Task: inverse folding
């Protein structure tokens, strides 16, 4: 009988930037069981959203996640527009899709860099993030912000992409494409990367269906699930593109799907830019007077998978109930399948391979006393604690 | 006695080797920064790091675990590294000739730092350190045999002499060993052995920041960690120096040759840096297979080739 050791990854660990706790129960180097605790990052977003107007809520849901900060407003806009039965202009649709796809590119590049870092390959990390810079510059040109773009509103978008900006966007994308070829080559043809990622953390097609995984995690196992195709929204039905899938389901397949998806994103953006030229400048929103009582659901394909928003309206100017489901919520559960039986080295890269985003996912946290098992610190106590600290800071 | 102490503590032992190692570590970091489009640290950054750990940072001891062994391990690491440094650098810098059989002694002394890291890690009682310790142990078991085969190849090339000084003077007369096919093979294998000995990527799994958060070093802080840093700086200088002495004709400090000697060291460190910047970390299983099968095979081929005088 080998003694099981507990290898903790978290709550603060160099592997992932966010607080999370994975408990790997290991025999030697082999992971025998895994448990995880999230909930270090609860911010009460849904509750907050119910106290804000629809327009204000966009800035709130944008801050659900720092990386995919357009996918949440995207899904929220879809939900509110479904509830209010609003049809937006084609120009707004194109602009929404352009921002969404640019975000996918920067998010996938970010993941490729981080995956390199997790494998100890810091050169890939630095290179991928350098190539990501021009994309962020594009965001700054389009929206004024490198992140959290504040582009969306009910009935359209806040800022237009004027026709004179189109050549600059195209030029940047062309340059990026060449650099991306380099990066993709460096990652896909490196024998040592193959040795580290092929056959690691395999999720079969059945596993994906069992755990209801979404996004690149599912597509890497041959499940062609993509909200942009399955339930088209914005400009996606107006352009030609294909869903990238891979069959193997290992970490390498996930990297492959993400790298190739960037090319699809570039192609979508280019087609959207062509579409923009045909539409009249300035027609970026429809005036919305009020949202009738009812409900609406909206999805958007975030870089990590499907983001789902449910909005219940009561005829006032704010949501009566707002529910968010982020892709990592389902993807994290696949760790049970992909990590058990692997070594610690393989388990850590398998954890990173679904590109988990905990701050997207976390909705609720309960603290228990570990000795008695009693619930401690309810919401009001936490608020009192916070108020106490604020007053302390103020008095300093 | 005073002379020996001077050799050990100041030149070419502890102080000198640590300073040169620190500068080489800056060079390594600067090259890394260039490869990664970064600016890199200022020249004295390694020394700032060291002094900060030594003087400013508090030392936190693990609550569970053996504190005496935990604290003694870094001291032994520094001692092992500096004694190995003295034995390597005395003949290499032409100060003393050393003694017959010193290669064998150096071989043993060079393993001391790695062994002390394992002992210190296991004494800390941290599960992550235990994983790191077991990885380091497996790594030592795999590369030490290869390292021994390389030394055997070199000894055979030198006509069965086991004196470091004689090997250097032999190369000064007949040209560097690295000039032949077997010499080049031995050079390649030696470089990878150094990479594993220094625990640089791709063989940094005992520390593996993103897996087991610095593994064997996780519990070290303050002064003990400064000692470990020092041992690492020393190793970072003496291992390339040992390689140059054994295979690349040693160092010469007369006139313009100083420049050539410095370039030799910088070139070897550059190779190490480039390898560590163009590879991901391999798994411990893969590293064992890499050394036990491929590197050993290469070393044996080199030995056979050198037997036939190639």
Result:
């Amino acid at each position: 009988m080998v003694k099981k050791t507990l290898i903790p990854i978290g709550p603060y660990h160099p592997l992932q930037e966010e607080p999370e706790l994975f408990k790997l129960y290991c025999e030697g180097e082999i992971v025998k069981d895994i448990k995880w605790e999230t909930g270090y990052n609860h911010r009460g977003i849904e509750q907050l959203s119910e106290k804000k107007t629809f327009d204000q809520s966009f800035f709130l849901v944008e801050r659900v996640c720092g990386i995919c900060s357009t996918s949440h407003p995207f899904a929220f806009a879809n939900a509110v527009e479904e509830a209010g039965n609003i049809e937006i202009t084609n120009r707004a649709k194109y602009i929404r899709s352009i921002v969404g796809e640019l975000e996918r590119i920067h998010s996938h590049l970010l993941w490729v860099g981080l995956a390199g870092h997790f494998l100890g390959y810091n050169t890939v990390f630095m290179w991928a993030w350098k190539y990501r810079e021009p994309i962020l510059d594009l965001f700054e040109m389009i929206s004024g912000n490198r992140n959290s773009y504040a582009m969306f509103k009910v009935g359209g978008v806040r800022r237009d992409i004027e026709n004179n900006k189109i050549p600059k966007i195209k030029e940047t994308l062309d340059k990026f494409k060449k650099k991306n070829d380099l990066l993709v080559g460096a990652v896909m043809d490196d024998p040592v990367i193959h040795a580290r990622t092929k056959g690691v953390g395999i999720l079969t097609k059945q596993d994906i269906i069992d755990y209801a995984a979404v996004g690149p995690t599912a597509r890497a196992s041959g499940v062609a699930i993509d909200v942009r195709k399955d339930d088209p929204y914005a400009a996606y039905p107006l352009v030609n593109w294909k869903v990238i899938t891979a069959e193997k389901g290992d970490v390498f397949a996930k990297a492959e799907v993400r790298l190739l998806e960037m090319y699809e994103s570039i192609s979508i953006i280019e087609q959207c830019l062509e579409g923009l030229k045909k539409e009249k400048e300035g027609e970026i929103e429809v005036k919305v007077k009020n949202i009738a009582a009812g409900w609406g659901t909206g999805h958007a394909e975030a870089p990590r998978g499907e983001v789902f928003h449910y909005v219940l309206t009561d005829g006032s100017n704010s949501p009566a109930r707002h529910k968010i489901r982020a892709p990592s919520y389902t993807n994290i559960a696949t760790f049970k399948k992909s990590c058990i039986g692997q070594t610690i080295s393989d388990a850590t890269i398998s954890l990173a391979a679904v590109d988990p985003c905990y701050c997207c996912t976390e909705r609720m946290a309960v603290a228990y006393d570990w000795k008695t098992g009693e619930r401690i610190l309810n919401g009001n106590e936490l608020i009192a604690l916070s108020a106490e600290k604020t007053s302390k800071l103020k008095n300093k | 006695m005073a002379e020996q102490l001077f050799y050990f503590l100041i030149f070419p032992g502890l102080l000198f080797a640590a300073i040169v190692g620190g500068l080489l570590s800056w060079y390594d970091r600067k090259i890394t920064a260039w490869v990664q489009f970064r600016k890199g640290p200022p020249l004295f950054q390694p020394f700032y790091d060291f002094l900060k750990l030594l003087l400013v940072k508090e030392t936190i001891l693990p609550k569970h675990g053996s504190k005496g062994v935990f604290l003694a391990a870094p001291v032994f690491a520094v001692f092992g590294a500096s004694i190995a440094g003295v034995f390597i650098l005395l003949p290499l810098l032409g100060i003393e000739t050393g003694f017959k059989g010193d290669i064998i002694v150096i071989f043993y002394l060079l393993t001391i730092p790695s062994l002390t890291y394992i002992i210190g890690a296991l004494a800390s009682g941290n599960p992550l350190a235990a994983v790191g310790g077991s990885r380091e142990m497996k790594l030592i078991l795999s590369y030490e045999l290869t390292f021994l085969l390389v030394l055997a190849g070199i000894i055979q090339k030198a006509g069965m002499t086991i004196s470091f000084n004689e090997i250097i003077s032999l190369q000064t007369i007949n040209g560097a060993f690295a000039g032949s096919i077997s010499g080049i093979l031995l050079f390649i294998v030696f470089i990878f052995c150094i990479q594993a000995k220094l625990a640089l990527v791709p063989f940094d799994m005992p520390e593996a920041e993103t897996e087991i958060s610095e593994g064997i070093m996780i519990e070290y802080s303050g002064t003990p960690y400064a000692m470990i840093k020092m041992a690492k700086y020393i190793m970072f200088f003496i291992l390339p120096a040992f390689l140059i002495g054994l295979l690349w004709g040693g160092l010469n400090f007369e006139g313009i040759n100083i420049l050539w000697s410095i370039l030799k060291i910088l070139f070897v460190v550059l190779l190490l840096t480039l390898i560590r910047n163009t590879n991901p970390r391999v798994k411990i299983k893969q590293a064992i297979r890499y050394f036990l099968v491929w590197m050993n095979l290469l070393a044996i081929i080199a030995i056979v080739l050198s037997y036939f005088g190639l």
Q: What stands out?
A: DSSP finds twelve helices and no strands in chain B. Residues 127-157 of chain B form the longest helix (31 residues). The interface with chain A takes residues 32, 35-38, 127-128, 130-131, 134-135, 201-202, 204-205, 208-213, 277-286 of chain B (CB under 8 Å).
